[in-house]
Amino acid sequence: MGDHYERIIDVEVSQEEAPALAERMVGWMVAEGLLTREMSDVAMYSFQVDEGHVPGPNWARAAEDWGDDHIPAPVAVIVGRDHHVGGQGEDDAEYANCPRCETRTVFIHYPEACEPDEEVWRPFRDAIDTWKETGEGSADCSACGASVPVTEWEWEMNFALGALAFDFWGWPPLTDDFAAEFGRQLGHRTAQHMGKF
């Protein structure tokens, strides 16, 4: 069965700005009654943090209707440069598009393979690791030769890089209106994932 989550990632905020923005977003959700300041680790499985904010009395305004008896789990607030992956247990991107020439670099050749081609994926993975540590990391496009920052590559929909993310554990699917308002409150572009633990 497992536990599911929906994640919203800010793909533009800097590491330095992320803590203040995280606090502002939590304050907004608390003021709207979507969350409380109470913290819990019950049914929350984010790898980066141990506890999340308990849903508030108006949490259902952000999600589709799943019945009166459904109680969602906490919302984890993840601050710090990291890669984020949707789905179920994956940790690598399937592909990325070069923003300079639009050529797609494929790392995992589904359905023939379920693991990345190490020779192709390694330079990108190393660049992502460097970005996590320093805030800068680039990978070369094999087609046009451009050295492109990893934050500018156009990653497939289940892979994103960002310094701020929110994991909604056990919530019904978030509504499009809420996701759009969430992005407006952040003031940045976002990526959205669903997954299962």
Write the layout of secondary structure elements.
Blueprint: E1 4-10, H1 18-31, E2 35-40, E3 52-55, E4 75-85, E5 95-97, E6 104-106, H2 118-134, E7 138-140, E8 147-149, E9 154-155, E10 159-169, H3 176-186, E11 190-196
Antiparallel strand pairs: 1-10, 1-11, 2-3, 4-10, 5-6, 5-9, 7-8
Would you write up a description of this structure?
By secondary structure, the protein is an alpha+beta fold. The chain has 3 helices and 11 strands, in the order βαβββββαββββαβ. It has helices spanning 18-31, 118-134, 176-186; strands at residues 4-10, 35-40, 52-55, 75-85, 95-97, 104-106, 138-140, 147-149, 154-155, 159-169, 190-196. The strands form 4 sheets. A 4-stranded antiparallel sheet has the order 4-10-1-11. Strands 6-5-9 form a 3-stranded antiparallel sheet, with no helix packed on it. Strands 2-3 form a two-stranded antiparallel ribbon. β5 and β6 (104-106) form a beta hairpin. The longest helix is centred in the middle third of the chain and has 17 residues, at 118-134. The radius of gyration is 18 Å and the shape is globular. The N and C termini lie close together (9 Å).
Nearest-angstrom radius of gyration? 18 Å
Strand content: 25-35%
Protein structure class: alpha+beta
Distance between the termini: 9 Å
Low-confidence stretches: none
Give the overall pLDDT as a whole number: 95
